[in-house]
Design a protein that fits this description.
Blueprint (H helix, E strand, L loop, with lengths): L2 E8 L7 E10 L2 E9 L9 H7 L3 H4 L5 H12 L3 E4 L2 H14 L10 E4 H7 L7 H8 L8 H17 L1
Helix pairs in contact: 6-7
Length: 163
């Protein structure tokens, strides 16, 4: 099975404020590539609540690429692919709203989405958040670090495919 797992962290409660992205490529059910980047959100603005969640601070993204600058790298990795996220509604909206903020047409990506949160909720997991699913599945996780979250999502999806 081939797919991409993705996770975004945001600097504020606004979905166009991506401040980090993690992308994991799975080919023939094997993780073959990992990509991580900090992203400078609009005006490099952060809410304290978000900093407490993921630990990313404005000084870390002051010289990071903007979403518009990192988009070609994201596009290269996810275009025309199945993309999996844990709570795809969040990650899909961060991708879409960040692209929209920079006048990028994200519909060109032609992505098919799937959601491990929905899958594990249907399997009866309670709670079904990423940390709980990983704990139950024995998957290592540094929660709210975008690459760790994306890799954990990829492993959850792989586990689902073989169960």
């Amino acid at each position: 099975m081939n797919f991409i797992a993705i996770d975004f962290e945001t600097a504020t409660s606004y979905r166009n404020s991506a401040c980090a992205v993690g992308i994991v490529t799975v080919e023939k059910s094997i993780i073959t590539d990992k990509f991580y980047s900090l992203i400078q959100p609009p005006f490099n603005d952060y809410f304290d609540t978000n900093i407490r969640i993921h630990g990313i601070q404005p000084f870390q993204t002051k010289k990071a690429p903007t979403f518009a600058e990192i988009f070609p790298e994201i596009q290269k990795r996810i275009e025309n692919k199945k993309v999996v996220a844990h709570n795809k509604t969040f990650d899909q909206s961060v991708l879409d709203q960040s692209a929209q903020y920079y006048d990028i047409d994200a519909s060109i990506l032609n992505i098919v989405w799937d959601c491990t949160m929905t899958i594990y909720k249907a399997k009866g997991y309670k709670p079904y958040n990423l940390a709980a699913c990983c704990l139950k599945g024995g998957i290592a996780l540094n929660h709210h670090e975008a690459l760790s979250d994306a890799e954990a999502c990829a492993k959850l999806y792989l586990n689902h495919l073989v169960s």
